Fold:
Amino acid sequence: MFAKRIERLTSSLVRDILAAASRPGVISFAGGLPAEEALYRPDLAQVQSAQQLNCWQYGQTEGEPQLREAIAAEARALGIACEASQVLVLSGSQQGIDLVSKLFIEEGTRVLVEAPAYLAAVQSFRLFGADFLPVTVDPTAGPDNQSFKVALEQAQLAYLTPTFQNPSGYCYPDEQRDRIAAALDTAGVPLFEDDPYRELAFDGAAPQPIVGRLKHAPWVYQGSFSKTLAPGLRLGFLIAHPILVPHLTRLKQAADLHSNRLSQHLILQALQGGLHEHVAQILPIYRERRDAMHVALQRHLGDLVTWQKPVGGLFFWVQFKQPVDTHALMKQALEAGVAIMPGDAFYTEKPALSCLRLNFSHSTPQDIEEGMARLASLLR
Amino acid sequence: MFAKRIERLTSSLVRDILAAASRPGVISFAGGLPAEEALYRPDLAQVQSAQQLNCWQYGQTEGEPQLREAIAAEARALGIACEASQVLVLSGSQQGIDLVSKLFIEEGTRVLVEAPAYLAAVQSFRLFGADFLPVTVDPTAGPDNQSFKVALEQAQLAYLTPTFQNPSGYCYPDEQRDRIAAALDTAGVPLFEDDPYRELAFDGAAPQPIVGRLKHAPWVYQGSFSKTLAPGLRLGFLIAHPILVPHLTRLKQAADLHSNRLSQHLILQALQGGLHEHVAQILPIYRERRDAMHVALQRHLGDLVTWQKPVGGLFFWVQFKQPVDTHALMKQALEAGVAIMPGDAFYTEKPALSCLRLNFSHSTPQDIEEGMARLASLLR
Structure:
């Protein structure tokens, strides 16, 4: 009865973990939620009184013109030469993954992905029939240059999250970005650069996006307001090479006509005054939690695992020195009131090491300490 | 470079018409916009002050529990036996079309559609590779029973808009709905019933949905708040047979994680107090415009075309007595400041008669009279 792609809809393991993680009393390192204290809560009364709100009728598929202008200006400041006409407002950046999948991927399309990679992107690519070319991302050194080039020779699309990658936390330095941009230009392979964590930089700004360094290769760049403002507003954006924009616009129209106009209005207001101040205010919350998890890992698991202290984003990527059944551990941990995410969920092939992704943004420093202590007692 | 489906992304004719139709000074019968005067404009200040708003964090893919309960209760009152667990909140009902396409349609899937049919659904089905089995919907008598049965023998999915169909305006009576439900049960073909216009009933309530009459066949029913409240909020819903819900939920998660929570909050408030009153208030606006277009058609085009006065929805479906090049007429009309939609856009095969779809909801009675006079002068 169903289309063949439905067989490729991956199991609900992650959904099950996240559902269990949201139970009261569970300390969750499993999800990727912003801190409750960091959420942007716009003053709706002020929105209403300050101006004639005009957001109730159908709107444009591409997004509100002023918002597109503001997004393009922010992107130019990051070093992406672009016009507002290349901007498509999205109903969250997950939608960009759906649209790019539809544009490029059918059964057998070879997609270069990082290993580990963002899970929901891999799931979408798989749904549309992708074959994967995984390139290992070392948590300290990133992708190996030679492996990347070899994969690129086969690839029809490359998907990268070079800035505070989910899950590894790795941030590609300038010279690596330059090398990758040159390789993509030579191969003529389209780049899909996913950049939702850029603003959550704890130890200095991230380097210019890779798409800003490309000379020939087609590209799609996307960002999100979910980590800096409020995920409940479901608003993100993509910016694309001009040859891709008309197709992506029609795909967006077929997906949901256009994005929520009230959210677009609220986000535009934030962009025009307060987004960067808001981010500056929330960074200390994240930095404190990041540091708390680093200290708790040292204290409780320092002899069992290795990790890098992330310089941005929402996650620690933890590798066990000895093989561990992380799925069994996950179940035991849930019984002990701690939710963790097994690392193999982020791979398209079985990984060499046992690993975990641990989210630090949604737990208080006290809960981080307590959760890590519980985890350690299970492992001993 | 692109997936093969991109070749099936239909041309931008309709987008071009709608863009031209939105130019200042153009009287537009081309789109499907609610009356500006009928838009629901929630009091955001009151929303803010009345309660602790909790809509900024990530939410559930299926939608807010209270809203799902309220939608299920409304559906039960229409004669659809269902629970809240079968409800999926959508980012507009266009998203339901995308999700159902993904669930059922791949290259060569045979889909029974009405002829004419809702354009954006046909485009989505085509994008995913559907082959069409069109069943002619007579504007007076609906689909022929025998033709429907023959098409059903081949079909793998049936897509119907039985209530104030876009574009024909036709509303299936009870006995036709019963016959179709029985035929679907016999054939075991899943029904996708699209029902966005039900509340816009000018001459009495519409009959029970077909899905409520099914005994065995799987089904998806969807509705929208765009016609009754505000399309800019981009919120709709689907209700599905229990065996389909887990797949549709995962497809929704891959498409945009979940729908806008502020919109869900605003719509829930409307459902809890005021939606039906709001609809009762706006119906006279629509009835007046519908009657104005009926009179203007009689006055200006009565000898050239045939039509049924629609008992609901947003459109007149007008058939020429003699062949007319409706695309040339559309261009001439645009130059004369009137936007119309050629009827062949709504067919998967070339239709037997020349026809137009004329929207009456977004123009004042004066503009309807003026626009129709201009159209008539072009035709003489």
